[in-house]
């Protein structure tokens, strides 16, 4: 599939930075687009201040952050802009276009990370078992929900799966995560069963509607690869139809998988590896969920709870 091209900008140093992110660091188009939009905003700010991109200091960065606060941006958005600034000037430093990173000491606002919403096991079961497996698309959806929940996949990872990524003999899936990083994750027995049925009884019929070969595992009714947006739309549709309806997104399904693993006794390092988190601090948010679960168990079963 041909990747979308970025619209050209009047900033050659930004063009070089985005090429570095995409080609050398292997970041996704979506991530690079976020960097690009953040830096265009910053460069327009510099133009309004009659400043040169190569002649800024920490004070200029702080002034820009103050402007973002005046624009009523959320702390999370400001933190992303700061991260973009630091990465951009670090690139200029590494490329010998500057002799230091003037934004290195720019302080990131303290973020209060919300606890991830997780479904109960009962709600997960209701959702996963809701597709009509007598239809090709229903069989596909059952296989997809089993795989996403069973292996804790991001929606982009599920959309990117190819038929050759599954090791049926040993029960593993090759997953391409953020930054094109690959990892092997276990595939549970229900997922193996339903993916096998989908490949045998549903996918060939769906592919008859297109003349071009398709390597992606999950395809739509026209035989083309399902997109991230397509999977999100399908999941929301199923969640609205079950009784009672479920509030969900693809990431909630991933959160639920991680939470249920911890509740079942998995250790944090194992869950980190399973989810493909580079930094364990990203995984540590689930310890709060686990403690809440422990508190509920204590309240329910302790004689003086």
Architecture overview:
The chain is mainly alpha-helical and 305 residues long. It has two domains: 12-94, Orthogonal Bundle (DNA polymerase, domain 1); 121-301, hpI Integrase, Chain A (Orthogonal Bundle). 56% of the residues lie in helices and 4% in strands. The protein is built from 14 helices and three strands. The protein has helices at 12-24, 29-48, 58-70, 75-94, 121-128, 136-151, 155-160, 189-201, 203-207, 228-241, 250-263, 268-275, 280-283, 285-301; strands at residues 166-167, 172-176, 182-186. A three-stranded antiparallel β-sheet has the order 1-2-3. Strand 1 and strand 2 (172-176) form a beta hairpin. Helix 2 (29-48) packs across helix 4 and helix 6 (136-151) crosses helix 11. The longest helix has 20 residues, at 29-48. It is elongated. The relative contact order is 0.09. The model has no long low-confidence stretch (mean pLDDT 86).
């Amino acid at each position: 599939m041909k990747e979308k091209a970025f619209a050209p900008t009047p900033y050659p140093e930004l063009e070089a930075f985005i090429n570095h992110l995409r080609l050398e660091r292997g970041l996704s188009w979506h991530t690079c687009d976020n960097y690009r939009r953040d830096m265009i905003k910053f460069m327009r700010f510099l133009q309004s201040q009659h400043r040169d991109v190569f002649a800024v200091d920490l004070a200029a960065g702080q002034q820009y952050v103050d402007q973002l606060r005046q624009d009523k941006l959320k702390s999370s958005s400001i933190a992303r802009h700061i991260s973009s600034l630091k990465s951009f000037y670090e690139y200029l430093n590494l490329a010998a276009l500057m002799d230091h990173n003037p934004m290195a000491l720019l302080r990131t606002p303290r973020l209060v990370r919300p606890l991830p919403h997780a479904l109960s096991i009962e709600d997960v079961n209701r959702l996963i078992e809701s597709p009509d497996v007598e239809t090709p698309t229903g069989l596909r959806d059952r296989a997809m929900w089993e795989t996403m929940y069973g292996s804790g996949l991001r929606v982009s990872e599920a959309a990117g799966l190819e038929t050759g990524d599954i090791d049926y003999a040993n029960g593993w899936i090759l997953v391409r995560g953020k930054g094109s990083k690959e990892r092997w994750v276990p595939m549970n027995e229900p997922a193996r069963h339903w993916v096998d049925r989908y490949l045998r009884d549903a996918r060939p019929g769906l592919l008859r509607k297109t003349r071009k070969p398709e390597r992606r595992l999950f395809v739509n009714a026209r035989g083309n690869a399902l997109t991230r947006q397509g999977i999100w739309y399908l999941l929301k549709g199923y969640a609205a139809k079950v009784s009672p309806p479920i509030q969900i997104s693809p990431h909630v399904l991933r959160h639920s998988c991680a939470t249920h693993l911890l509740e079942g006794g998995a250790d944090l390092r194992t869950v980190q590896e399973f989810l493909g988190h580079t930094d364990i601090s990203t995984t540590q948010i689930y310890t709060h969920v686990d403690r809440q679960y422990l508190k509920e168990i204590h309240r329910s079963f302790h004689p003086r709870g």
